[in-house]
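Hi all, long-time lurker, first post. I run a small reading group and we've been trying to get comfortable going from sequence to structure in the token notation. Rather than ask abstract questions, I figured I'd post a concrete chain and ask someone more experienced to write out its structure so we can walk through it together at our next meeting. Sequence below, copied exactly:
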Amino acid sequence: MPTLSDTGTDGDPQSSTDDATHPQYDGDNALAPVLDSTKDQAPSTPQTRTYLDANGQPIYGLFDHDLHVGFDDYFLFTERYGSTSKQAGFDPRFDLDGNGIVNLADFFIFADHFGKEAVIGG
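-- Answer (accepted) --
Happy to help. Here is the structure in token form:
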């Protein structure tokens, strides 16, 4: 079962996931609450962190470090659109559904979370 924890403070992107289908990059903020369930994730899913909104719901699409899903995240996403896990340099943070390709399904997940903001505290 996922548990609420704080991000690390060493500046390294760290990881956990609330489920195996929605991995998410955490950025460098040491105060944002995240779901931490590395023991429950599927072996093929990259270890990631998921930020939570004010209602405790996970937010997907935070690719930069500002805790707000916005245009900077969109531009980062579009740079990786169409990439697959078979390509060198594939970044699984952008494969939001975990199927090995950054495609339209991932964009729809991103679009559903566009404008959301992670809460600070813990």
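A couple of things your group might point at:
Confidence is low (pLDDT under 50) at residues 1-47.
The helical segments are 71-80, 104-113.
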